[in-house]
Each structure stands twice: as C-alpha cells, then as structure tokens.
TrEMBL record:
Residues that span the membrane, as ranges: 25-46, 78-100, 121-141, 251-269
ABC transmembrane type-1 domain segment(s): 76-269
Signal sequence extent: none
GO MF entry, a single one: transmembrane transporter activity
Protein name from the UniProt record: Amino acid ABC transporter permease
Protein's organism: Microbacterium betulae
Family: Belongs to the binding-protein-dependent transport system permease family. HisMQ subfamily.
Keywords: Amino-acid transport, Cell membrane, Membrane, Transmembrane, Transmembrane helix, Transport
C-alpha cells in the first residue's frame, strides 16, 4: 500500500529491487557453501594427520575441560576485573596526555616534553618488561606498608603501556579536527579548556572510536600477561590445571574464553567502522 502523498515506485525500480534481492540471496548461499566446503576440507585434513589422535587426547579432552572449567573460570573473572579497571584508567590518562601534548605556547614546553618522553618510553618498552619492572620493582621500594595483590601491579603496568598508545590515538583525533572549529569556539568567547571539552574532544573521540576499539581488543588479550607476576588468572589457572592433569586442554579452554570475550568487541568494531564509512560516503558517489 502506497502512503498518501508518496510517489509510486516505477516498474524499472521494482525490477532493480527484485534483482538486488536475488543477488543478495545468491551471494549469501555461495558464501555459506564455500565456508562449509572449506571447513570440511580443513577438518578432514586435520583428522587424517598421523598425530591427530595424540593431539586430540592432549589438547581436546572433554573430561579434563569440564574438570578444569571452575578454576579457569575463576581466573578469567580476575582477568575481567583487571580489564575493566585498566580500560577506565587508560582512557583517563591517555586523554590527559593527549591534551597536554596539544598545548600551545613555550610555557608548556616542559609538560609537552614530559608527555612526549612518557609516550616514547612506554611505546618502546615491551609490555612484559614493564610488568616485571612494575610488579617486582616498585614493591621492592617498600613505599607501601601493606603488600598489594599482583593484579594491582599488573593493572598499573598495563595502564602505563596502553595509555602511551591510546594517547597517540587521541592526539591524532584532536589534530584531525579542523582548526576552524577551534577558532570559531574561541571567537565565541570560550576558553581553551572549554573549547577542548565542548568542541574539539567530542569530535576527536568520534573520529578515533574504531581505533580505540581495536586497542580494547588488544588489551583483552594482554590482560592474560598478568599471570607472569603470579596472579592466578585464567592463564595461570590453566597452567596449574595442566600440571595437575598432565594435559594441555586447560590452555585451550582459557584461549577459548578469551576468544569468546573478544568476538563481540571485534564485530562491534567492524559494524561501527562500516557505519562511519557509510556516513562519510553519503553524497560522495555520483
């Protein structure tokens, strides 16, 4: 039924829509068939390898997987807590660093140099070295009378490293905002702080959101490195269960949990990136 006032769709346009719908269904069917065919070929190639029975017993034992699940899951919850705390701290610290690096005027040179040195240092240091230095070095100074848990120091180390990377992403977004936006805000009487808070940073965050989500996916994996400090997270729990059962299935279980955690974020990143691209291309195709 055609709404009142709406122009009727021509026969040519209806034919185009039917053709596009058929093409879409055909593409989906071909994609499903090719995916299933590839999966079958890979599966048969895998199960027919000479050592498949031994690998299956060592890495894919369902009894060991079920027995290891409670302990690995408890460790995985620790990873989630570290991830949540680190993500919040990284956003705050990275935004502060990016704002400092975009300050203008010679009086801010010491702060800019300090922020630049920070990002250079922690972007150059391997994360595992930062974990060792923070996790075993700072507690050795005896600055804090109480012994803090290893996941606390792991959170600090992850924050130091990832804030250096994310601050550069924020800085790129701030630089991508057209200078006229800043000049217009200043001409309206806004201070530098209000210009950044109300005009520049909201646009910058929108521009770099896909890159930030990619960094979050990388962080989801790297929280497993806190196990090197002794924290009983999913990886460390899997190591303990592997030693108990003389079987590597707990490692597969821990890896599966991390993959299940990352997949929603990856799909959300792809969806948001495609949405931003479509929005930018509106009216750009003749």
């Amino acid at each position: 039924m055609i709404p009142p006032g709406a122009r009727p769709v021509s026969a040519v346009e209806q034919e185009r829509r039917v053709h596009r719908r058929r093409q879409g269904i055909r593409s989906v069917l071909i994609s499903l068939a090719s995916t299933v065919a590839l999966a079958v070929v890979v599966w048969f190639a895998l199960v027919n390898t000479p050592g498949w029975a031994r690998v299956q017993q060592s890495f894919f034992d369902p009894d060991v997987l079920i027995a290891s699940l409670p302990r690995v899951w408890d460790g995985f919850l620790l990873n989630l807590r570290v991830l949540a705390a680190t993500a919040v701290l990284v956003l705050v610290l990275a935004l502060l660093l990016a704002a400092v690096r975009t300050l203008r005027g010679p009086v801010w040179l010491p702060l800019r140099a300090l922020a630049a040195g920070y990002t250079d240092l922690f972007r150059g240091l391997p994360l595992i070295i930062v974990l060792y230095l923070v996790g075993f070095g700072i507690p050795g100074l005896d600055l804090i009378p109480e012994r803090l848990p290893y996941e606390f120091w792991g959170t600090i180390a992850l924050t130091l490293t990832y804030s250096a990377y994310v601050s550069e992403v924020f800085r790129a977004g701030i630089d991508a905002v057209h200078p006229s936006q800043r000049q217009a805000a200043r001409s309206l009487g806004l201070s530098h702080a209000k210009t950044m808070r109300l005009v520049v940073i909201p646009q910058a965050v929108r521009k770099v959101t896909p890159a930030l989500m990619n960094d979050l996916v990388a962080l989801q994996k790297d929280v497993g490195l806190v196990s090197v400090l002794g924290a009983v997270d999913a990886v460390r729990a899997a190591q303990i269960q592997t030693a108990a059962f003389f079987n590597f299935t707990p490692y597969v279980l821990a890896g599966l949990l991390f993959v299940l955690l990352a997949i929603p974020t990856i799909r959300l990143t792809d969806w948001y990136t495609a949405r931003v691209r479509e929005r930018e291309q509106i009216g750009g195709v003749v």
